[in-house]
Amino acid sequence: MTGEMTKPIRTRFAPSPTGDLHVGSAHTTLFNWLFTRHHGGTVVLRIEDTDRKRLVERSLGSITDGLTWLGLDWDEGIEIDEQANPLPDRERGDYGPYMQSERQELYRQSAEWLVEHGHAYYCFCSPERLAQVRQERQAKNILPSGYDRHCRDLAPEDVQRRLAAGEGAVVRLKVPLEGVISFTDLVRGEIAVDARTLEDAVLLKSDGFPTYHLANVVDDHLMAITHILRAEEWIPTAPLHVLLYRAFDWEMPQIAHMVLLLGTDRKKLSKRHGSTSVQEFRANGIIPEALLNYLAIIGWSWDDKTEIFSKEELIEKFDLDRVKASSAIFDHQKLEWMNGQYINHILTLDEVTARALPYLREAGFVTDDTSPDYVKTVVALEKERIKRLSEVPEMTAYFFTPTVEYTIDALVSKKQKLTPELTLRVLAATRDAVAGGDVADLAGMETRLRGLADELGLKAGQVFMPIRVALSGRTATPGLFEMMHVLGQETCVARLGAAHEWLQEQGAVTAG
Ligand code: GLU
Predict the structure, then answer these.
(1) Which of 13, 48, 49 has most ligand 1 atoms within 8 Å of CB, for mutation?
(2) Cα 506 from chain centre
(3) Cα 234 to averaged position of ligand 1 atoms, centre (Å)
(4) Is 42 exposed, middle or buried (0-12, 13-18, 19+ CB in 10 A)?
(5) pLDDT above 60 for 87
(6) What pLDDT, on the 0 to 100 scale, is given for residue 4?
(7) Which ligand 1 atom is nearest residue 237's CA?
(8) Quick one: which atom of ligand 1 is closest to the CA of 48?
(9) Ligand 1 atom at shortest distance from the alpha carbon of 28
(10) What are the residue ranges of helices labelled H in 299-419?
């Protein structure tokens, strides 16, 4: 479903560089992207940087970096070579410039055209007056609650004189004083608004920069955008945009509003709920496939049960007819579950290893000297349990550190009914048994250690637990014999010996 489809589809991502890529923007962007890719259309990346007060340096690089990491590419628009560079280096496409700050002349001309044709007017009211009027109207519940249209009917000669004298002015849209303004939302159906509730919105500010309304409409038209897919929070601006398209006598693109992401408490997604920027998810070990997949099933569903989709499947299946205007909960735990699904079952061992590597490097566990095969065998042991890549260093630390640490309680397991004396015997005997065997022969080593337990008159667990703790410092690890194999004969023997020595010292201290 695309509404009326006569022209090749063109959509746009229109981020404002006001910070990192928010997961909500990523969500809308993904829907634009899937819709466009499904229909073989063109995606435009346009930067809406006209609100100069809200600009954040380096935000642009961070946004494009986040999009690229998620695998969302664009066909036209700005290109940034270096993430560190806050300004675009190049542009692609025939509809540029794609940075709104470089299109000021177009907006100024458009605003003047609207004034000349009676659709807009200059307003000279001071900020103080506007604030006062707003307050009064709100207190008395007068609609529209903001501006009182004080300058709407100034005599043209007056306006010219004041402009010529250099008086500061904004350009405002002449909203009809009554009637209903309606439009069709491709997801929500007909939306109608009483014109009396709409303020004469500012189109051009006194600093010469356009507002969102003017720049957005002018650019969507000039860039031949056919479908506007944007977040729900923009619905209130749509009637003004309808009026602008009418005033310019331009065909309005099809429009649809996507759900706003909510936390599990149904409040707008914010820091309180956990990570909100794509960068944070990335740093926390979420993989792009999982985030993309999870975002796709918020506000869209294929059959109400399938949850795992590859990017290719999404492109094939996604369309607006299955986009919903409800249920927009973003649940961090569900994302983590999905991330685990990808790491445990979908990505190959090579892929998981390659992606875990930066985290292991950052923790200082892996350097250029570390054997890639060793890292891979370590990751293989934990692959089934990893939920986030960032957990990998913690999970696998004992494979990379020269020694391990433990507590008496861990080593002398009460659960296994061990005493320090018994544990010392087990450690000494197992060290010799391991030294005399071959950890590469997993079955052989198991038989040997089970035999040892019999000889000592102990249960297998009573022998295995001290070994596990001595080798890893933990009471829960991957399979004991797999772990021994990866650690290698020498390390196992050394760690069993070290644990024995350590426990003896502890005994000496306690006894003393
Ligand atoms: N610049 C707006 C934003 O940052 C774009 C809204 C739209 O898609 O029209 O969300």
Answers:
(1) 48
(2) 49
(3) 8
(4) buried
(5) no
(6) 55
(7) 9
(8) 1
(9) 8
(10) 311-317, 332-341, 349-362, 372-382, 392-400, 408-411
State pLDDT tens for residues 334-352: 999 999 999 999 999 999 9
Round to whole Å and give the CA distance between 170 and 121. Answer: 8
Shortest-distance Cα residue to atom 9 of ligand 1: 230
Residue 477, number of CB atoms within 10 A of its CB: 17
Of 260, 255, 250, nearest to 182 by C-alpha is 255
Alpha-carbon span 297 to 39, nearest angstrom: 19
Q: What type of residue sits at position 189?
A: G
pLDDT of residue 30 exceeding 90, the answer is: yes
8 Å CB contact between 36 and 97: no
> Is residue 275 scored above 80 in pLDDT?
yes
The tokens 């004298």 sit on which residue? 165
Each residue's pLDDT tens digit, 236-260: 999 999 999 999 999 999 999 999 9
Q: SS3 breakdown of the chain: % helix, strand, coil, rounded to 5?
A: 50, 10, 40
Sketch out the chain's domains with CATH numbers. Answer: 10-101+261-328 (3.40.50.620), 103-258 (3.40.50.620), 348-400 (1.10.8.70), 408-505 (1.10.10.350)
Ligand 1 mean position to 232 CA, how many Å?
11
Cα 127 vs. chain centroid, distance in angstroms? 38
**Ligand 1 mutation target, pool 12, 16, 33, 52, most atoms within 8 A of CB:** 16
Whether 261 and 298 have beta carbons less than 8 Å apart is answered as yes
d(CA 210, ligand 1 centre) in Å: 14
Q: Tell me which residue has tokens 């891979």.
A: 376
Pocket residues: Cβ below 6 A from ligand 1: 14-16, 48, 216, 230, 234
Torsion angle in degrees (nearest 10) through CA of 404, 408, 411, 415: -150
Residues acting as catalytic residues = 271
pLDDT of residue 92: 85
| Beta pairing class for 170-173 and 254-258 | unpaired
Q: What is the pLDDT of residue 81?
A: 62
Return d(Cα 91, Cα 74) in angstroms, integer: 11
| Spacing, Cα 360 to ligand 1 middle (Å) | 38
Tell the residue number behind the tokens 């008086």, with chain if given: 167
Whether the Cβ atoms of residue 148 and residue 137 lie closer than 8 Å to each other: yes
